[in-house]
Design brief:
three-stranded antiparallel beta sheet, Maltoporin, Chain A, about 240 residues, nine-stranded antiparallel beta sheet
């Protein structure tokens, strides 16, 4: 539903980017790593404006978008059957769009009103439009990290026990092109685990959990519908049966 807005299409965008890094291994392959840094500049990037005067989602072109950062990966295999993998990155994004650019919501004329709830834009508002120059890209956390530990324990009957845990972290995010106090997502840490048994004939019986800390966060929003937010999945416990061929 577009609430009467006119459909538009994305134009051409041009990206100039550079990346450099190195990778290697140590201790006869028991330790492997990779590190790199990157930089990019995109001209006329097409992004989505959510809400605005038309209470719809529409394409908008941002004149310049910059991105830079660094990332690293590390895999450690200290003994047979066990692998520890970690990764992390720092990501900086910046939009350059001089002057008033996007409407904050359906209230119009600079009224900080989102659907039937009041919101608090933190960007300057000029004639109902937010000045987004200098804002980060939406849904772009500054810090991201993950760790995974996997162990396979062989059994005398030819089967094996499998133990796995994985954790992911991201720092806070902004939902939209403009910034508002109510539309900033807090940092999120999610973890999972799995304990399984694999038979000699390839059947796997496993017990698992997802988001085991039950950390609930809003991960996106709709600014023209009663301050509506979408959240991540809650804690899940379950079991699975799988056959490998």
């Amino acid at each position: 539903m577009t609430f009467g807005s006119i459909q538009n299409t994305a134009g051409k965008q041009t990206t100039l980017s550079a990346e450099a890094g190195f990778k290697g291994s140590l201790l006869d392959g028991k330790v492997s790593f990779a590190v790199d840094g990157y930089w990019s500049r995109t001209k006329d990037m097409t992004l989505t404006e959510v809400g605005g005067f038309g209470n719809s989602a529409a394409l908008v072109t941002v004149p310049r978008v910059y991105g830079s950062g660094a990332e690293a990966e590390l895999d450690v295999r200290p003994f047979k059957g066990f692998t520890l993998s970690t990764s992390g990155s720092y990501n900086y994004t910046l939009m350059r769009a001089p002057g008033p650019y996007v409407a904050t919501n359906g209230g119009g004329l600079g009224i900080p009103y989102c659907g039937s709830g009041v919101c608090t834009p933190t960007d300057p508002i000029v004639n109902g439009l937010a000045v987004i120059d200098g804002n980060p890209l939406p849904q772009a956390p500054r810090w991201v990290g993950s760790v995974n530990a996997h162990y396979e324990w062989p059994l005398a009957n030819g089967g094996k026990m499998v133990f796995n845990t994985d954790w992911a972290y991201r720092s806070s995010i902004n939902y939209f092109l403009y910034t508002a106090s109510e539309f900033t997502g807090r940092s999120l840490t999610e973890g999972g685990l799995k304990v399984g048994y694999t038979t000699p004939k390839g059947w796997e019986f496993a017990f698992y959990g997802r988001n085991i800390l039950n950390q609930i966060r809003a991960i996106s929003a709709i600014d023209f519908n009663n301050l509506t937010g979408m959240i991540n999945d809650p804690r899940i416990w379950g079991g699975s049966i799988r056959k490998s061929f």
